[in-house]
Amino acid sequence: MKKNSRKVAVFACSGIGKPLGTVAREIGYELTERVRPDTTVLTCLALLVINDPETQQLITENPVIAIDGCSLDCAKKSLEANGAPLVKAYQSIDFFKKHKHLKPEGIAELNEAGQKLAALAAEELAGVVDDLLREGA
Ligand code: SF4
Question: Which CATH number fits domain 3-129: 2.60.40, 2.60.120, 3.40.50, 2.40.30?
Answer without folding.
Answer: 3.40.50
